[in-house]
Design goal:
The complex is a heterodimer of chains A (about 280) and B (about 800).
Chain A: E1 3-5, H1 10-20, E2 24-27, H2 33-38, E3 46-49, E4 59-62, E5 65-69, H3 74-79, H4 81-84, H5 87-94, H6 99-104, H7 107-113, H8 119-125, E6 130-135, E7 139-144, E8 149-151, E9 154-155, E10 162-169, E11 175-182, E12 193-202, E13 205-214, E14 221-222, H9 224-230, H10 235-243, H11 258-280
Parallel strand pairs in A: 1-3, 2-3
Antiparallel strand pairs in A: 4-5, 5-10, 6-7, 6-10, 8-9, 11-12, 12-13, 13-14
Helix pairs in contact in A: 5-8, 10-11
Chain B: H1 16-21, E1 36-41, E2 48-54, H2 56-60, E3 64-68, E4 93-94, E5 102-106, H3 109-117, E6 120-125, H4 132-135, E7 155-163, H5 166-172, E8 175-183, E9 195-200, E10 207-210, H6 216-227, E11 234-237, H7 251-266, E12 270-273, H8 276-282, E13 288-297, E14 303-313, H9 330-336, E15 347-354, H10 369-387, H11 391-398, H12 420-431, E16 440-441, E17 444-456, E18 466-472, E19 478-482, H13 491-503, E20 510-514, H14 531-562, E21 571-574, E22 577-580, E23 583-589, H15 590-598, E24 605-610, E25 630-642, E26 648-658, H16 665-684, E27 690-691, E28 698-699, E29 717-723, H17 745-757, H18 768-799
Parallel strand pairs in B: 1-12, 10-11, 14-15, 19-20, 26-29
Antiparallel strand pairs in B: 1-5, 2-4, 2-6, 3-5, 7-15, 8-13, 9-10, 9-12, 13-14, 16-17, 17-25, 18-19, 18-24, 21-22, 22-23, 25-26, 27-28
The chains are: A alpha+beta (about 280), B alpha+beta (about 800).
């Protein structure tokens, strides 16, 4: 039998996490947690629900960065003026589950679960995001998202840690983002190929690129090789480069879909980068 | 002819309010609080010898009331909707993931689960086959050695049809089109999971079983032997069903067998419910088919011959695949529909059902006809493309016309309704077929496709016929009882409509009691789109008999009022009033007439019945009547293909069906819409996959997370068109629509894909993965062709 908690403050929550450690389970949306509890895959002693954590339910902009609180839902994100400027993020978040799922599910929960094919996580990877974490013993710390994941469903967090916010750069003029997911049906499907891109363009050339790949490796990954190669390229050159082959960071695992991923990832990459490019050049609002 | 007052009108379904408000009761709503919970120990391998089973720890667990092995069964250890070949509990061997090794009943679910986990099994693992070709290899392990239900080795049964002379037909052809087609194993994905509540009857020593069930009498016939009790002591009932699509003609037997034997053993109430994963892994599927199809045509588009060889992956047991006469079923339908809905003078088919270690192939909307039609409709588009003929014109040219001999040697009759031409014309007009079409530009290519179907109503060569019970009460209300199941298709509504129309009663005066062996005679299984026609005629017969009983009483009463003799032929009935023709004001209500009849020794209860012309399908000729009438239809689909990612969007659907007569047009449209969506799933995303390489043949995608079905967002803009070419033997001309709706959607999508891309796909579903394989193969082929042509030019350039 599990004990059920609905903490109202971060302090209250990290005290509970400190007390129960690995026997606690945070339900921050519940898309994965509730399924695990229902099917008996997880039998936590303490279930900690995040819905009352008012202080973590805000989206703010500070020093050129968007800070999404640890209990902010996807629905809140989709309605937020600042998030609306981020084309890729809107597409990624809008593709998650279904409308009822997006009412409950959260980006912090998504990152915490560490699924390899998570939409929001992949977009955050392609946004150079940082994860803010707090625990009773270690206090606050900030972990860049590319150092956050260890393997499938495992991240660097300890059982006592609480994700308090997810931070990523706010959109500026000359910046654009894109997100592409390849799926077996139009909605409510886990993507087989996920690509996110945030780029900066000046005078027709790419000056900075951040690329995230999902559903290809054991975790979402950054495609540094693509990022480096894109800098200095024109739109057409960038398009050609994306098409030229599978990014070397894509470590495809053997499955029924390996070959499909191999031949379609370059297409998805091209489309995500071009989508971002168009936004950076003001072709989309 | 009298204007129809109830039939042909979209009256509000009698179950609409209860279902819309959530008040409607389904089997899971009826679980008694004191019921024991049953669980099954399933095998870890689909194909294995059971070397040792130890249930001692499970038996010792507090709260466990029974643990049963094959040796503990009270009756026959075998059942099935056609032959009794599927064991209640595996005896020495398992043939697929759904063979129970042991059954447990415990006080609650948690205890039952724990007990199952405590059962220890030692296996000798055998190779598992997920397709007929591996199962037919010379060194393949025989799945059912020495079985009376196997023709030879792993072949269950073969059905052949030969008409005319195919060799001559191909010799006469200007073109021969020969291709391979493949369709997948498909899950029914009905909403309501399979469940049975079994209750021991202390008065009779029998059982009452409640389950979502498409055939209460058929189930009772098979289950009584399993329970070792006479059929009369087994009551089988079925409340509203959360959809069946054919699957609940069979899966209900699986859950009933488990709950029933445990209830007999414990003499308590027992509930057994499959969770979704168990539904995927253990219940029946659409047969996967591998079809080699050869079509001969003349330059003018006329068909000269069809030859087809079909191998069906039929899973571990016979189920509804069919066996020897008279139990021909799915395998037979694949053999008789290989020329689709067209006149074909020279025809030769062979369909072979092969045992595999997959869930048993069972009835699934269309019953083998969709697979056979898929191949033929793809071939028709290949033919049209080859000779440069319009795709609707080629179908119109070849469609069966009155007097044409069908491939089974019988003749197409106008009197039974032949509406394909009208369907083709209406779809042509509504879809804008003759207007210019935008084929898109790379990588988003667009195409449109068309496919036609015919589908015979009812079940050939088995029991076919229906009896219903009708009783008029002294207040004038009627109870109409039949054993058909209300699984969303609306038979409780349309049955009442037909009775009301025939009686001249108000629709609301009739209450239908359905699917309970205690309250009605056998009206047959709820399958094969048979209920509207066959049960409908029995309902009509009941109404006519009741009228015949009551009209003389009414004539006497009205005559007494008027002071002279009134003949029954001067009377009619409308809105529950029997009156003088043309004078609704001079009459009496049914309630008034029944009050008099009740004290005049006039029977107020009747049995209505109807039997269609008896089929007489012969083997090995494949000749003889099968079904007395056929529904027809034409489906138009418009799609966009993303050539770089393989993703297909179905954008528009126009669908016309000739169903003879729509008893309730809104319900008919619902059937057509639902079937169109299900067809879309079959065409582009649904397939059951088995991992024979790494996981001993276990199912790979046994969840809705990995098995895709269409969402509302995948559904295109859709138009349904009802065509009514009446069947002289159907009630008001009806022919049935539930099953056939699914048939033409997938080939229409495949043909749209051909139109968009120029690529001939042989396999469905057209998943992104499959599409990219096709695109890649096509590009390779084109590059090779180019390379063959190019060297001469290249070398010329170099030299230059």
């Amino acid at each position: 039998m599990s004990e059920f908690f609905k903490p109202k403050t971060v302090k209250e929550c990290i005290d509970l996490l400190d007390q129960y450690g690995s026997k606690a389970m945070i339900v921050n949306g519940g898309t994965d947690a509730v399924e695990k509890i229902n099917t008996g895959k997880a039998q936590p002693e303490a279930v900690i629900l995040m819905t009352e954590m008012k202080e973590l339910k805000k989206i703010t902009v500070k020093d050129g960065a968007v800070h999404v609180g640890g209990a902010v839902t996807y629905l809140q994100m989709l309605k937020n003026a600042e998030i609306k400027k981020n084309q890729g993020m809107m597409i990624a978040v809008g593709a998650i589950g279904s409308p009822p799922v997006r009412v409950m599910a959260t980006p912090a929960g998504n990152v915490g679960t560490a699924a390899p094919s998570a939409d929001c996580t992949t977009m955050l990877m392609g946004s150079d995001a940082k994860i803010h974490v707090v625990s009773k013993k270690e206090g606050e710390r900030v972990i860049p998202i590319d150092k956050f994941f260890v393997k499938t469903y495992v991240n660097v967090l300890k059982p006592e840690d609480l994700i308090t916010e997810v931070e990523f750069p706010a959109m500026q003029p000359g910046m654009g983002s894109g997100y592409v997911r390849l799926t077996r049906r139009k909605v409510q499907d886990i993507g087989k190929v996920l690509v996110s891109a945030t780029i900066e363009v000046k005078r027709g050339r790419c000056t900075k690129a951040v690329i995230g790949l999902g559903a290809l490796n054991a975790t979402a990954v950054r495609a540094y090789s693509v990022e480096e190669a894109l800098v200095g390229l024109s739109r057409k050159e960038a398009q050609e480069f994306c098409r030229s082959g599978l990014p070397k960071e894509a470590g495809l695992r053997p499955s029924r879909y390996t070959h499909y991923k191999e031949i379609t990832t370059p297409v998805a990459l091209e489309r995500a980068v071009m989508m971002a490019w168009d936004q950076a050049e003001g072709k989309v609002k | 002819m009298k204007d129809l007052k109830v039939v042909g009108h979209s009256v509000v379904r009698s179950d609409a309010f209860a279902k819309a408000t959530g008040a409607a009761r389904y089997t899971p709503d009826m679980i008694p609080v004191d019921a024991l919970v049953a669980k099954v120990k399933w095998p870890d391998y689909p194909h294995a010898i059971l070397k040792k089973i130890d249930v001692s720890k499970a038996k010792a667990l507090p709260g466990v009331e029974a643990v049963m092995l094959a040796k503990d069964l009270p009756g026959k250890n075998g059942y099935g909707p056609m032959v009794a070949d599927k064991p209640v509990i595996a005896d020495g061997k398992v043939c697929y993931e759904g063979d129970p090794i042991a059954l447990v009943a415990a006080v609650d679910e948690e205890t039952a689960k724990k007990a199952v986990d405590l059962i220890e099994v030692e296996y000798e693992v055998l190779p598992a086959y997920d397709n007929p070709f591996d199962a037919l290899k010379p060194d393949a392990v025989i799945i059912h050695p020495n079985s009376p239900f196997a023709e030879e080795g792993n072949i269950c049964n073969t059905v052949t049809v030969t008409t005319g002379d195919v060799e001559k037909g191909f010799a006469e052809a200007d073109y021969i089109i020969e291709n391979d087609y493949q369709t997948p194993y498909v899950e029914h994905t009905y909403f309501e999971q399979d469940i049975c509540i079994a209750e021991y009857d202390w008065n009779t020593g029998g059982l009452t079983v409640t389950s979502p069930n498409q055939a209460v009498f058929q189930g009772r016939r098979h289950m009584a032997a399993v329970f070792g009790i006479p059929q009369s002591k087994l009551r089988s009932l079925c409340p509203y069903v959360g959809a069946g699509f054919g699957g609940k003609e069979d899966a209900c037997l699986d859950v009933t067998a488990v709950a029933g034997v445990l209830a007999l053993k414990t003499k308590k109430k027992v509930v057994f419910q499959l969770n979704r994963e168990e539904v995927f892994r253990t219940t029946g599927k659409r047969h996967a088919c591998w079809i080699h199809h050869k079509l001969g045509i003349k330059k003018d588009g006329r068909i000269t011959a069809v030859q087809a060889e079909t191998y069906l992956g039929k899973g571990a047991y016979v189920s509804m695949s069919g066996f020897k006469a008279p139990a021909y079923a799915v395998i037979q339908r694949t053999a008789i529909y290989a020329a689709g809905t067209y006149y074909c003078p020279n025809y030769k088919t062979k369909s072979v059902g092969v045992y595999t270690n997959t869930p048993y192939g069972t009835a699934f909307r269309g019953f083998g006809v969709p697979q056979a039609t898929f191949a033929m409709e793809c071939q028709m588009d290949e033919a049209a493309r080859l000779i440069g003929m319009d795709r609707i014109d080629i179908r119109r040219l070849n469609m069966l016309k009155a007097g044409d001999m069908m491939v089974t040697g019988t003749y197409a009759m106008a009197e039974r309704g032949l509406g394909l031409g009208e369907c083709l014309d209406k779809v042509r007009a509504k879809s804008g077929w003759d207007k210019p079409f935008d084929h898109g530009k790379w990588p988003y290519l667009r195409g449109r496709g068309i496919a036609a179907f015919m589908y015979g109503t009812g079940i050939p060569l088995m029991f076919e016929g229906a009896c219903v019970f009708a009783l008029i009460n002294t207040d004038g209300s009627v109870q109409l009882n039949y054993s058909s199941t209300e699984m969303g298709q609306g038979i409780a509504t349309t049955g009442a409509q037909m009775f009301a129309e025939e009686m001249g009663m108000k629709f609301t005066d009739i209450e239908v009691h359905f699917s309970d062996t205690l309250s009605s005679p056998d009206s047959g299984p709820t399958v094969g789109s048979r209920s509207t026609v066959i049960v409908g005629n029995a309902i009509r017969d009941a109404a006519q008999k009741l009228r015949a009983n009551l009209f003389p009483v009414a004539a006497q009463m009205i005559g007494a009022k008027l002071g002279f003799t009134v003949d029954t032929r001067d009377l009619t009935a409308d809105d529950s009033v029997i009156h003088i023709k043309g004078r609704p004001d001079i009459g009496l209500t049914y309630a008034q007439v029944v009050a008099k009849a009740y004290i005049s020794q006039v029977p107020l209860a009747v049995i209505g019945m109807w039997y269609p012309p008896h089929p007489g399908f012969q083997q090995p000729s494949g000749h003889g009547p099968t079904m007395h009438t056929f529904a027809y239809g034409v489906h138009y689909e418009e799609i966009t293909v993303d050539m770089e990612t393989g993703m297909i969007s179905v954008d528009k659907s126009v669908y016309a069906c000739d169903i003879g007569k729509a008893i309730n047009p809104l319900i008919v449209e619902g059937q057509m819409e639902g079937a169109a969506v299900q067809a879309l799933g079959w065409g582009v995303m649904e397939e059951e996959l088995f991992d024979t390489k790494r996981r001993n043949g276990k199912m790979e995608n046994a969840t809705f997370h990995s098995y895709m079905i269409p969402t509302a967002m995948d559904v295109p803009e859709h138009t349904s068109i009802i065509v009514e070419c009446p069947n002289e033997l159907g009630p008001w001309g009806a022919k049935g629509i539930g099953e056939p709706g699914i048939i033409p959607g997938a080939p229409a999508i495949r043909n749209a894909f051909l139109d968009a891309t120029g690529i001939s796909a042989g396999k469905i579903p057209l998943t992104p993965y499959e599409v990219m394989n096709l695109v890649e193969a096509d590009q390779k082929k084109k590059a090779e062709a180019k390379a063959k042509k190019a060297p001469a030019k290249k070398s010329a350039k170099k030299e230059g």
